Amino acid sequence: MVHLRIGALLLVSLLAAAAQTQITRERSEIVGIVKDVTGAVVPKATVTFFSPTKEHVASTSTDKDGAFYLAVPKLSEGQLEISQDGFKPFSLHVHISNNLKPITAVLEVADLSQRIDVSATADAHQVSTDPAQNLDAAVVNDKLLDQLPVFDQDFVAAVSNFLDQGATGNMGTTLVVDGMEQKNAGVTPSAVQSVKINSDPYSAEFSRPGRGRIEITTKTPDPVFHGTANVIFRDAHFDARNAFASTRAPEQRRIFEGVLTGPVPRLSRTFFLLSADYQQDNLQSIVFAQLPSGLLQENVPSPVRAEDLAARLSHDFTDHYAGALQFTYEGRSRQNQLSSGQPVNAGQNPNGGGGSGQNQANGGYILPEAGRNVTNLERHLTYSDRLVLRPTLLNQFQIMYERNRDLIASTTERPQISVQNSFVAGGAQATQLATENNVDIRDVLTWTHKTHTVSTGFAMPNMSRRGLDDYSNRLGIFNFSSLEDYVAGRPYSFTQQHGPVHFVYWQKEIGGFIQDQIRVASNLQLTFGLRWDWQNYLHDNNNFAPRAAIAYAFGKKRNTVLRAGGGIFYDRTSARPLGSLAEYSAPAVQNILLLNPPYPNPFINGADPSLEPANLYRFSPNIRTPYLGMYSVSLERQLLKAATITATYRGLTGIGLFTSLNVNQPLPPLYLQRPDPGYGVYQQIQSSGRQVGQALDISFSGKINRYFSGVVQYTLGRTDNNIGGINYMPPNTYDLSGEYARADFDQHHRFSMLASSTPNRWINVGIAFIAGSGLPYTETLGIDVYNSGFANARPTGVARNTLLGPGFMELDLRWSHDFYLSKKAEKGPIITFAADAFNAVNHVNFSQFIGNDKSPFFRQAVSSLPARRLQFTLRLKF
Q1: Please, are residues 392 and 448 in contact by the beta-carbon 8 Å criterion?
Q2: In this structure, what are the phi and psi dihedrals at residue 309, rounded to the nearest 5 degrees?
Q3: Which of 357, 401, 670, 705 is 20 to 30 A from 293, alpha carbon to alpha carbon?
C-alpha cells in the first residue's frame, strides 16, 4: 500500500512538472441535425461555436440532410449558435463530455431558453419537453458539491435522500457511472462532474427506474492542466458526545484527496486524468448492551483505512473516434467492526450469524469480543470509446474487467452467545473469503432522423465467476430468548455448520433495449421504449418491459410542461442468495439446527452432529423474475429565469417480489412435527411478495438570487408490502395474515434540501437539511412459539410494523472562503478554507428500536446516529 501511495505521488509530481511544456489545443467534436418545427431538415444553416468568453471558435454549415459536424478545441463548455434566413436564431449552451450524443436543433423554439449538454447531463433548471430534462429530478453539479457540507466527500450519501426505497429493488440502489452500471464511482470525489437522481425516470436504457438509481458523470480529461487537492481533518475535541456513549469517543479522521488532468506531453491528442484518495479514520464503535451484571456502555476502537487510485488515459484517434482506458484500485480495511453484517449464507442461520439482525455498525449490543475485521480489495480495468459513424449516428462502447477480494475474519474464535436484543458475546462466527472475477459490457447506438431519436443497445452488468470460502459458524451459536433464560442456561436453539468450505458459482445478467424519442411538435414529445432482462438461476426468459412517456409544453411562453409516464421494471437477485443456493441447496454444507439444546455442550447426550437434519436453501420450482410497475404525472413551471417548481404524483406496484418461507416449519396446531423430518429449516425463495406505494412530491430547483441556489423536495407518501427482504421469513408459515403492512422503509413525510447562499465573498454558506417522520418496527414475543428456530413470533392479532419510531432531523452547515493567488481571480489558482458542522444543532436521531417484549430495551433505541461533528477542509484548485 505504501508503494502504491508513493507511486501515485510521484506520478502526480511528474505530470504537474510537465505542465510547463507547451500545450497543444486538441480537438473534440459536436454533431447534430437542424430541423424546423414540421420535422423537415434545414440545409445550409450556419453553425457557430463560441467560447464561454464569447470568442469565435469554429463555424460550419449543415449539409443537404440538415446534419452538421463541428470540430472544436476540447473545451469543457461553450455556446452553439445556429442561424438561417427566415428562421429565428437558435442558441444552445453545450457541455462537452464522454457521453456525447447528437444534438437535434429545432429552430422555431429558439426563443425558449435552453441549456443542455451533449451527454444529456444538463442542470439548467429550465423547462423542456426532453425526457431527460424532467425537473422532479435531483441534480447536483461539481460547483454545488464544492459548496455543500458533504461528510467525508461522500456525495452519494448526500443525495440519497432523494431516492425512493421502494424503487431500488432487491440489489439496492443502482449506481450508473458514465452510462455503465457499477458498484462505485470509480474516481475520487474531485473527479465527479455531476450527480443525478430520477433523470429520465422511464428510460429503457436502464434496468431500474429513475428514483432507484444514481447517475454519476465524471470529469473528462482537459487539454489544459487543471487540478484539485483536498486535505480534510476531523477531531473529537470539536465533536459532541453520542447519546449512547458514556464518554466522548476519541476519534480522528484524515483524508487526502485530489485530481489532476491535462494533456500528455509529446503525445498529440492524448490526455490523462489521475485521481487519488487516502483516508485514515480512527473511529470508535459504541457498545450499549444489557448484561446480567448490568448496563454496559463502552467505546471500542474500530479504525478504518481506505486507499483509492484512478488513472485514465484518453486519445482522439481521429476527429470521429476517441477511446479511453482507465485503471481503478480501491482498498478498504476495517478493524474490529461491531455489526450484524451477515455472511453470504445468512439465510441458513436463524440468527444470521450475529444475533437477530438488530445491530448497527456503531456497536449497539454487540460486545467487543464479537467483532470482525473486514478487508476489501477491488481492481477495475475499463476501456470505452465513442465512434461518430456520421453526424446522425453515434456508437458508444464500454467494457470493464474487475477483480475483487473480500475477507471477513472474526476477532475471536469462540462459540457465540446471542441473547436476543440484550447482548451478543463470544466469537462473531463470520469468517469468510469471497472472490469475484467479472466482465461488464455496454454498447449503445444512437440514430437521429427527422423527428426521431432512436437508441438501442445491450448491457451485461454481470458475467461473474465468484468463489466463496466459508468458515462461518463452525463453532456454533447459542440463542437465548432473554437474560433470565441465559442465566438459567436455557437456549432455545443452537446452530452450527460442517462440511466443505470452498464453492464456486456464476452470476450472469444481460439486458437489451430499444427506444424512440419522437418530437411530434415543437412543444410535444413522445417516448416509447422496450427493454428485456435476464438472469441465470431464475429460468425466466420473457421479461419484456414496455415503457412510455409524454411531455407537453403549454402557455404563451411555453413555460409550463405537463409530463406523464409509466413502465415495467424487472428486478434481479444479488450475489448473496446465489452463494447460499450453491452452498446449501444440495446441501453441500451441513447446517444444523437443534431446538432447546443442552448448554454449554449441545452434544452432551451423545448426539452426532453429522446425523442431525440439515437445513436447506432453495429457489421455488416456479420462481420468476419480480417486477415493478411505476407511473407518474407531473406539472413543471418556470418561476424565474433559472428556477422551477414541480408537483409530481407517482405510484408503484410490485408483483412477485422475492421473499422466503420456511416450508418445513412444524405443522399446526401443536407445531411439533416437521412435514419432512429428514430436514431442518427449509428456506424456500419465492416470487410471492407484493408492494403498493403512492407519493406526492413538491420540488424546487434552481437559483432565486445570490441568497439561495439549490434543490428542495417535500414528499408525502405511503408504501405497504408483505416482504422484509429476500431472506426475511414470516414467523408462521401457515398464517400470513399479518404480513401485509407498512413497509420497513415507509416514511409518510420527508423533506430534503441541498442549497448554497453567497451574499458576499466572505459569506459563502452551504446547507443540507433533512427531516422526516418516524419509521415503523415490529413487536415480537421474543420466544420460539412455532418451534422453527426463530424467536420472532408476534403477539396474537399483531401485524408487522405496528410500532413507530420518532422522526428524524439533521441540519448540516458549511462556511467556506476562497483566497485568490493571482490577479486572474477565479481563472487562476484558488485556495479554499471550509468548516463544516454536521448535525449542527446536535439533535439526537435515535435508531434501531427494539420491539422484543422480552428485551430490557423494549420500545427503546439501542443506538443513535452521530452527534454534532466538525470537519475542516483546505483545498487548492488550479
Answers
A1: yes
A2: -145, 130
A3: 357
How many Å apart are CA 245 and CA 271, to the nearest integer? 50
Cell readout for 387 is 465512434
DSSP state of 844: -
Cα–Cα distances in angstroms (integers) from residue 184 to residues 218, 308, 554, in the given order: 12, 11, 40
Single-letter amino acid code for the residue at 412: T
- Top-confidence residue, 347 or 654: 654
Question: How far is 831 from 580, CA to CA, in rounded Å?
Answer: 52
Q: Which position has the higher pLDDT, 172 or 65?
A: 172
**What is the distance between the alpha carbons of residues 778 and 318, in angstroms, rounded to a whole number?**
62
- Domain coordinates of the chain in residue numbers? 226-865
| CATH architecture of the domain covering 226-865 | Beta Barrel (2.40)
The C-alpha cell 434540501 sits at 753
Note the pLDDT of residue 706.
78
**Residue 513 and residue 528: Cα distance in Å, rounded?**
11
Phi, psi at 637, each rounded to 5°: -135, 130
| pLDDT reading at 525 higher than 90 | yes
Reply yes or no on whether the pLDDT at 54 is more than 50.
Answer: yes
Of 202 and 129, the one with more pLDDT: 202
Are 691 and 657 in contact, with CB atoms under 8 Å apart? yes
pLDDT in tens, 548-602: 999 999 988 888 999 999 999 999 998 889 999 888 887 778 899 999 999 999 9
Residues present in the chain in total: 878
pLDDT of residue 360: 34
Omega prior to 669 cis, within 30 of 0: yes
Mean of pLDDT values over 381-400: 93
pLDDT, tens digit (0-9, with 9 covering 90-100), for 618-638: 999 999 999 999 999 999 999
Residue 347 is given by DSSP the state: G
pTM: 0.85
**List of residues 6+ apart from 508 with CB closer than 8 A:** 462, 463, 464, 535, 536
Place of cell 467560447: 51
> Percentage of the chain with pLDDT > 90?
66
Given a cut of 50, whether residue 123 has pLDDT beyond it is: no
3-state secondary structure of 143: helix
For 118, residues 6+ apart whose C-beta sits below 8 A from its C-beta are 30, 94, 95, 96, 97, 99, 100, 101, 103
Among 202, 167, 263, which Cα is nearest to 719's?
Answer: 167
**Nearest Cα to Cα of residue 697 among 742, 767, 632:** 632
Which residue, among 372, 352, 351, has the nearest Cα to 361 in the 3D structure? 372
Cα torsion angle, 716, 721, 727, 732, sign: positive
